Amino acid sequence: MKRFDAAYRFIDGQTRLNETELNPRFQDLDVRLDSLERIKPELDSQVDSLIAVGLQRINDSLGPFLDRLATAAELGFLIGPSATDVELIEGELAGFVIGEDNRSLFSPTPFLSVLDNTDQTAFALLQLVSYDPLSGLLTVEVVSVHGGETITSDNWTVAASGAVFPMMVEALASAQTAAETGTSKAAEAVAARNEAVPAAATATAAAAAAVAAKNAAEAAAASIDGATIDNRLDAIETGRGAANGYASLDGDGRIPLAQIPESLLGALAFQGTWNATTNTPTIPAAAPGNAGHFYVVATAGSTSIDGISSWAVGDWVLSNGATWEKIGNTDSVSSVAGKTGAVTLVKADVGLGNVTNTNDANKPVSSAQQTALDLKLNAANPTTTGKHTTAASAAESAGFNLPPGTAPTAPDNGDTWTTATGIFARVGGVTRQLFSYAGGVLTGFFAEKVVALTDTSNVAINAALGNVFDLVAGGNRTLQIPTSPTDGQKIIIRHKASGGARTLAAVTSGAGSFRFNEDVTSFTATTSGKTDMIGALYNGTDQRWDIIAVTKGC
Question: How far apart are CA 468 and CA 455, in angstroms?
């Protein structure tokens, strides 16, 4: 049966809305509807009859089976109630807890049956897996389920009816055959009815649509005149390429770029400046419609926009259609030496107004440089004025060095030099050898410095000042502990008695003090006008000045 004949189709700009076009369509629809309405009562009657026959066949099969099952129970097969909430699915394991009053006497057989007490048509056949009389736990495998694909309940009657199992299987097979026959017939009737009903509905809907189209066409035709058509055409032409109108096409049949939204093109669109402190103007939520929109920060601030809260003057706030992003422009150069635009610098712009462009060979020397140069020694035959001080000696080098060489043939007074044999100096027109070297042994002489001690009751000695000390004593004196000693240092104290005989003593206790020996146990009085010579050697280990010699009456 055709659902929509080509003769019913309306084509824009071709089908006329008049009686010639519409009347044949309505007449054909009326004929089809009439035939369907004639057979509908008969189809309904047949469907009802088939359903009744199918249900009667099911009752005829299940009734005797249930009667036989009740008889088997009355003959002595044990039955146990169970309130276990369980779902029975064919082929899977299930567990029931038999009621406490029945679990001790309940003796399951290899095959059992279970009935849903809330629905007498829902039952299942089970195969025993295990049973615990103490807890009442009955574990079974579901062999078959009847009354649905699965059965779920918490009100069961379990029958330990191994003897009735073959009978139940036979009865269920008969009932299944009857049910399938009745269901098949009923399904055929229902399918026929289902096919007829949509056809009738389709025809009715088509007729209603045709009537509505006819009415609309007549109303439209009645309301349209030449002036109205002209006005509508003018409105259409005015809206082409205009705001809130529709896009036009260019010579290639494409929409001009000017009429395509910026969000589709991905172009940047400047929205103005933005105050990041007050959020003025308010930045809207990022969306596809504002993709490419951007603001330039005019006032720095910390307004949080999509998690960004650090904004400096010159930064951009740019929408990508999903979030707002920051384009930092704070590192860009805004001016050079106070100049903007196409900048041309002169030397004064960068603080070099006094600089001349002179090559290295001709660069002048400043007055300060020349003064500093005048104070430098010439590399050859330098002459200095005033005192000359060299660097102090250190572990890695001496402060002053005279490399050994050849003696000059005509030295000047003051010249000093060294050769392989010693150190020489020119003094008063005579060359003198200060030291000589012979087999590593220094020969010559040293003139020791003599340090005058202050004449007081307690005479202080600084061993760092020299090795020979003179004391002109005007009374009896005591030598104090010498300071700054050096291990192995030898000193000579020349004690002269002035104005009478004088006795000299020494501090002999404490670190750095004097120490006498078996030969010299103390000092004796020095004769007036005479000098006693006292020699001492410092023992750094014991921290004592050992008296090693005393010469009297010099």
Answer: 16
| Torsion on CA atoms 75, 81, 86, 91, rounded to nearest 10 | -20
Residues 63 and 211 in one domain: yes
Q: Are 478 and 507 in contact (CB under 8 A)?
A: yes
- The dihedrals phi and psi of 468, each to the nearest 5 degrees, come to -120, 125
Asked whether residue 334 is assigned to any structural domain, the reply reads: no
Q: Tell me the pTM.
A: 0.28
Residue that is last in its domain, among 101, 128, 162: 162
**Residues 5 and 65 placed together within one structural domain of the fold:** yes
SS3 readout for 252-293: CCCCCHHHCCHHHHCCCEEEEEEECCCCECCCCCCCHHHCCE
Neighbours of 254 (CB within 10 A): 10
Q: Are residues 184 and 70 in the same domain?
A: yes
Structure confidence by residue, pLDDT tens digits, 171-189: 555 556 655 665 666 566 5
Dihedral pair phi/psi, residue 70, rounded to 5°: -65, -40
Among candidate residues 131, 162, 193, the one where a domain is terminated? 162
Would you list the DSSP string of 126-143?
A: EEEEEEETTTTEEEEEEE
CA dist., res. 197 & res. 403, Å (int): 133
Instruction: Provide the pLDDT confidence category of residue 352 given band limits of 50, 70 and 90.
Output: confident
Q: How far is Cα of residue 497 from the mean position of the Cα atoms in its chain? A: 93
Kindly state whether residues 8 and 65 are assigned to the same domain: yes
How far is Cα 400 from Cα 390, in angstroms, rounded to an integer? 6
Are residues 221 and 286 both part of a single domain?
Answer: no
Residues 188 and 60 in one domain: yes
Q: What is the pLDDT of residues 364-393, one digit of tens each?
A: 788 888 888 877 777 777 777 666 777 788
